[in-house]
């Protein structure tokens, strides 16, 4: 069993550290977080170094790498205090590169290559969170055009993105016999008439906007259909497992970031005449945090290895996402506890990690959905 | 046109451990292309792109200089090819020996128009290699170089940082340029650069006969830490305290 990384991966991580040192000082993160600004300078620096197109096929201007490498980079960025959402474009745009036509793919890649967001993923609706099949947004055909109507919620980057990949059901209901065959994907400009965007106020994730998006008879063309009509739901599912693993890897990095800060604090903060790290209750926390981080790393690495070797990871990616989301929150909470009062102030980045990590137990598949996916699969494999 | 960039494979200062007494321990630091040398490589890359020149990396040192990791790390920064002299005899070599071996290799490469070096290595920081190298080659040396471009007559126009200003010189013929640490911001190697680095040519050279009289270091001493005055200015009237601070700084010649 070889746990070492390749020379190329080691050099790539050195480049990531270089970019992060130049473009992501904690003062910049703090400023963006307080002002609610997207860290564009960091994204530009990552783009210039070719990191935002890592994993994107060469024909679209990217550099193909294996899953393990993608996970290492995601982990390194958050480990160094960067936000998770600045990396992983290769996975988020995979739907478009797989199913989009030439025009759609070019428009999407133009955005990514310019350091912008490829598109808003228009799936979630108020009544369709974990249950994507409850999506109620419709498309209807009239006079040679297609009209989209509905209400999307928790739309990341809706204020900045130029396009939405909108999942909608046929208003005529002709293909509603099977739920999964009812949906189609549409490529929709965000500045089209009939699109209304309202930002949500959140307790964390202040650097990235999350919005309600209302669609009122938004006109698109037949050419804006993405992939095959009626296959939208299945098209959306192709990448979920790798995306879940990417979230797990980013969470691992966030936990490591908080852990490193907590260790520094435990070694230097003195109470009762000695560093607090010399007290066994602090050591107990540090040991528990270290075990969780090691477990997270092993889960992520093994799942990535399985993906790279063509093995199914439906259970593994659900377990990794579930465990990393819960454990990262626990590690970061312990780090905040080690910091004490100062950890609860915005001067301390652990406080930012604390609020930013919490939503990862909800977004990208809730803890409960991960248990549902993994639990039934584990039982199925046991009883077959 | 052939441009050579002489670089060092040295300990990364970011991994250094600094003891309570101020002693710097680099023994556990990972090696890398020495801190300022990527600036020289980037300067060379830009000049090579503008002139169609070939950019050759040259490094001499112990066996670690010739490792696959060391080669890829240097080549991923924009060099076209590499010449390395990796020999036990050069492990820990100091300026006189290093410069003599570099000079021999520059001659071996042949038809070299320009040798670029970094501002200084991060471990020893003696700033001697460019001067000794230029001496061996019999070429002019320009230090604190902030820019280099091709002049209208085909020579080179070199900008140096001089005190608070700059000096522009025209260089006709081969020269050694020591590039200022802040001359350019070096590129960050991307995955394409890193993958491509493993496919670029590397020539391994031998030390050969180098007869150098290397001065022996017989002692080292750190500068004494300055004693702080530890003077505390207090008072309810902040304007008066500020005025007192300014007066104290003036009295000490700081302002």
Architecture blueprint of SSEs:
The complex is a heterodimer of chains A (384) and B (255).
Chain A: H1 7-23, H2 26-35, H3 40-48, H4 67-79, H5 89-92, H6 94-99, H7 102-113, E1 120-122, E2 138-142, E3 145-156, E4 163-170, E5 183-189, E6 195-199, E7 210-220, E8 225-226, H8 232-237, H9 240-268, E9 270-271, E10 274-275, H10 280-308, H11 314-339, H12 349-358, H13 367-383
Parallel strand pairs in A: 1-4, 2-4
Antiparallel strand pairs in A: 2-3, 3-7, 4-5, 5-8, 6-7, 9-10
Chain B: E1 2-6, E2 9-11, E3 17-18, E4 24-25, E5 31-33, H1 37-51, E6 54-61, H2 68-75, E7 81-86, H3 95-109, E8 114-117, H4 129-137, E9 141-150, E10 156-162, E11 165-171, E12 175-179, H5 191-197, E13 202-204, H6 238-251
Parallel strand pairs in B: 1-6, 1-8, 6-7, 7-13, 8-12, 9-12
Antiparallel strand pairs in B: 2-5, 3-4, 9-10, 10-11
Helix pairs in contact in B: 2-5, 3-4
Number of domains of chain B: 2
Mind telling me the CATH class of the largest domain in chain B? Answer: Alpha Beta
Q: What gross morphology of chain B would you assign?
A: globular
Mean pLDDT reading of chain A: 94
Helical element count of chain B? 6
Strand residue content of chain A: 5-15%
Which second-level CATH architecture of the largest domain in chain A applies? Up-down Bundle
What's the CATH architecture of the largest domain in chain B? 3-Layer(aba) Sandwich
Q: Mean of the pLDDT scores of chain B?
A: 91
As for the CATH topology of the largest domain in chain A, it is Butyryl-CoA Dehydrogenase, subunit A, domain 3
Number of domain units of chain A: 3
Question: Helix/strand/pairing class of chain B, anyone?
Answer: alpha/beta
CATH superfamily of the largest domain in chain A: Butyryl-CoA Dehydrogenase, subunit A, domain 3
Low-confidence stretches of chain A: none
């Amino acid at each position: 069993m070889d746990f070492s990384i390749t020379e190329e991966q080691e050099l790539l991580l050195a480049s990531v550290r270089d970019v992060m040192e130049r473009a992501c000082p904690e003062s910049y993160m703090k400023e963006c977080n307080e002002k609610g600004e997207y860290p564009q300078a960091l994204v530009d620096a990552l783009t210039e170094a070719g990191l935002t197109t890592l994993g994107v096929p060469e024909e679209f201007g990217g550099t193909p790498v294996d899953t393990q490498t993608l996970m290492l980079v995601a982990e390194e960025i958050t480990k160094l205090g960067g936000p998770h959402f600045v990396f992983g474009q290769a996975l988020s745009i995979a739907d478009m590169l797989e199913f989009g036509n030439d025009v759609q793919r070019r428009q999407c890649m133009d955005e990514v290559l310019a350091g912008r967001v490829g598109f808003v993923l228009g799936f979630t609706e108020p009544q369709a969170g974990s249950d994507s099949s409850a999506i109620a947004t419709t498309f209807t055909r009239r006079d040679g055009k297609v009209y989209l109507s509905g209400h999307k919620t928790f739309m990341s980057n809706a204020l900045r993105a130029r396009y939405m990949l909108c999942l909608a059901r046929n208003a005529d209901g002709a293909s509603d016999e099977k739920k999964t065959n009812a949906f189609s994907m549409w490529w929709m400009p965000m500045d089209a008439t009939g699109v209304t965007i309202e930002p949500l106020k959140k307790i964390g994730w202040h650097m990235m906007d999350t919005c309600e998006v209302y669609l009122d008879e938004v006109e698109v063309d037949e050419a804006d259909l993405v992939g095959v009509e009626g296959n939208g739901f299945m098209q959306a599912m192709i990448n979920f497992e790798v995306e879940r693993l990417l979230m797990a890897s980013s969470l691992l990095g966030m936990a490591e970031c908080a852990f490193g800060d907590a260790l520094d604090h435990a070694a230097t903060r003195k109470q009762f005449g000695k560093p607090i790290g010399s007290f066994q209750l602090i050591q107990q926390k540090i040991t528990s945090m270290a075990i969780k981080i090691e477990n997270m790393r092993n889960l992520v690495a093994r799942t990535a290895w399985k993906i790279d070797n063509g093995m199914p990871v439906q259970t593994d990616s659900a377990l990794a996402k579930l465990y990393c989301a819960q454990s990262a929150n626990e590690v970061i909470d312990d780090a905040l506890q080690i910091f004490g009062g100062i950890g609860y102030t915005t001067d301390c980045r652990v406080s930012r990690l604390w609020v930013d990590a919490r939503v990862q137990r909800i977004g990208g598949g809730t803890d409960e959905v991960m248990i549902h996916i993994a639990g039934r699969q584990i039982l199925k494999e046991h009883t077959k | 046109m052939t441009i050579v960039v002489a670089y060092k494979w040295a300990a990364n200062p970011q991994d250094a451990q600094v003891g309570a007494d101020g002693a710097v321990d680099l023994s556990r630091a990972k090696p890398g292309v020495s801190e300022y040398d990527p600036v020289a490589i980037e300067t060379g890359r830009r000049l090579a792109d503008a002139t169609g020149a070939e950019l050759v990396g040259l490094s001499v040192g112990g066996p670690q200089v010739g490792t696959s990791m060391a080669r890829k790390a240097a080549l991923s920064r924009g060099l076209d090819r590499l010449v390395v002299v990796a020999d036990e005899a050069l492990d820990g070599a100091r300026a006189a020996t290093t410069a003599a071996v570099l000079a021999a290799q520059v001659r071996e490469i042949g038809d070299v128009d320009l040798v670029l070096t970094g501002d200084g290595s991060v471990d020893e920081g003696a700033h001697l290699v460019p001067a000794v190298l230029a001496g061996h080659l019999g070429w002019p040396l320009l230090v604190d170089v902030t820019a280099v471009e091709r002049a209208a007559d085909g020579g080179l126009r070199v900008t140096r940082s001089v005190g608070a200003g700059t000096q522009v010189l025209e260089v006709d013929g081969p020269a050694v340029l020591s590039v200022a640490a802040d001359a350019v911001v070096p590129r960050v190697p991307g995955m394409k650069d890193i993958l491509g680095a493993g496919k670029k040519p590397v020539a391994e050279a031998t030390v050969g006969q180098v007869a150098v009289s290397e001065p022996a270091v017989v002692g080292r001493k750190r500068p004494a830490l300055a004693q702080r005055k530890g003077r505390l200015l207090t008072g309810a009237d902040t304007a008066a305290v500020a005025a007192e601070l300014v007066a104290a700084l003036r009295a000490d010649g700081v302002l």
